[in-house]
Amino acid sequence: MSKKTGIFAGIDLGTNNSCIAIYKYEKTEVLAGADGSRITPSYVYIGEDGVPHVGKSAKNYGHKKPERLFYDTKRLFAAKTSDQICKKYKNQWTFDIKRDAETGYCNYNIDGKIYTPEEISSEVLKKLVGYVGEKVDGVVLTVPAFFSTEQKNKILEAAESANINVLQLICEPTAAAIAYGMEHSYINGEMLFVFDMGGGTFDITIIKILNSKDFEVVVLGGDSHLGGRDFDGVIIDWIYKKLEDVVGKNNLKKLVPRKKYKIMEMAKEAKEALSQAEDAVLQLSEVHSDASDVTLTRSEFEELSKGLVAKVKECIENTLKCKALNQQEINHVLFVGGASKMPMISKLLKEFFNEAKFSKTVNAEEIVALGATRLAAKLGKQSTRSDITDLNYRDKISLKVGIEYADKNGESMFKKVFDNNTSYNQEQVINMKTTQDNQKECEIALYEGLYDELEKNAHIGSLKLMNLPPKKAGEYNVDVILTIDKNGILEVKTNDLNVAVKYKTQLSRKPKN
Predict the structure, then answer these.
(1) pLDDT score of 291 more than 70
(2) Is the distance from CB of 298 to CB of 270 less than 8 angstroms?
(3) What is the mean pLDDT of residues 148-158?
(4) CB within 8 A of 428, min separation 6: which ones?
(5) Is 334 strand, coil or helix?
(6) Tens digits of per-residue pLDDT, 194-234?
């Protein structure tokens, strides 16, 4: 197979940090910015002149005016102001959130101007692509395994806004497993347990190696609302309690954004320090002059985090149970994402797996981008190496997809069309019949989630069939074909070309080719 010219990249757009790698001279290379760092903070500062600053410079500006600093953007993709994530962190965030009147989604607000999370993320993507120094022909973007259809569409919108040609999406744990294969010769039939905890999401993916180049996702687990920021959060709550004892609860409510941002950064720094040391000093006097500096020990931090660790443990247990797997069947345990470095995480995983199976050589914050780059090299025909050209993987969806229907009592119910852990590139057919004479159109509500109860799942849009032929009730029927595409996104069509299909939300948005 001959190689084609061009530059193709893999991008890991993270909640806290992002990373880009390219494939060049038959090697993957993680690119650094002007400051020499290969990791770019996913922060965007909007100056008073409207000019965006990205990465470390954004954080530097943000220390003075954090109300102009936007972060946690990945957590806000398709998030509504009524969602638990917004309620939980609204008082900790230093920026202003406004509800979109039409969709209910969270948007950023500064100087009366609205920025969507996709617009902010597009600035991070532009920054990363700029490291290449020349035109990038195609990119593979990574997403958490537990990203919903709406969230995947949002990241594609961000890429489109940044004028990036997205070749494909790939789940972050799968990309990590592919990258790990660069330095480890897999044995046919080996099983990988990928523990991926970034700033905002937590994924577990168990992958079976059918040969050294064929990766099959066996089962997915995790929590889309659990990540390193939640561990920051328990320290933030602890700090607020310490300050409350000194200055009073009412005075705490009056903290200016600059002080709130200082607390957030202090908590994050303490969390990272406690991965290396047994204690960390927090200078609360920098927040309030009447407060004294305090010390947080690693054991205290672990006690504060007990509830979060219990959630992580439950996810591990449920993922293994889902396919009746035991610990002995796992050959490798991969740690992915910055939050996976916390000692309490490795301590927990030792309860399940022999430490000899733990990956020791991977860079937890670069491995995902490296794996995505290998796929980009294949899709862009950039290599003659068989481990690239023959690369194959099968991702799965993490959420059930279904439609709303009325039972015999007229109650709205959830009818599952695709189960969670269904592989990509699958289709199902639903036969629809008219219920009225000369019915001109029919509407189907689409839902996504982990539950069998309709009200617990998310309404992701409506499918409307129009231009139905005039016939008596029940005489006309049409097959509605629902497909999970190569990106894990829902597509819909019918077997009657005369019937128009319309979405109320962009469920079938595709990356540019």
Answers:
(1) yes
(2) no
(3) 93
(4) 417, 418, 481, 482
(5) strand
(6) 999 999 999 999 999 987 789 999 999 999 889 999 999 99
Cα separations (Å) of 439 from 275, 459, 472, 504? 64, 25, 8, 20
Phi/psi at 226 (5° precision)? -135, 130
pLDDT for 433 equals 87
Task: Give the dihedral of Cα atoms 406, 407, 409, 410; nearest 10 deg.
Answer: 0
Please determine, looking at this structure, whether the domain spanning 8-226+311-394 carries the CATH number 2.40.10.10.
no
Show me where the domains of the chain are located. 8-226+311-394, 400-503
The residue among 201, 213, 467 whose CA lies nearest residue 336 is: 201
Neighbouring residues of 268: CB distance < 8 A, sequence distance ≥ 6 = 232
Tokens of 172: 């972050």
Question: Would you tell me how many other CB atoms lie within 10 Å of the CB of residue 333?
Answer: 21
What average pLDDT does this structure show over 312-327? 93
- What single-letter amino acid sits at 437? D
How would CATH label the architecture of 400-503? Sandwich (2.60)
Q: What is the 3-state secondary structure (H, E, C) of 127-156?
A: HHHHCCCCCCCEEEEEECCCCCHHHHHHHH
pTM for the whole structure = 0.92
At which residue do the structure tokens 């000692």 appear? 343
pLDDT in tens, 420-462: 999 999 999 998 888 899 999 888 899 999 999 999 998 888 8
Per-residue burial over 134-173, b if 16 or more Cβ lie within 10 Å, else e, is eebbbbbbbbbbbbbbbbbbbbbbbbbbbebebbbbbbbb
Q: What angle do CA 344, 347, 353 make, to 5 degrees?
A: 140
Beta bridge partners of 405: 413
Q: Is residue 128 very low, low, confident or very high in pLDDT (cuts 50, 70, 90)?
A: very high
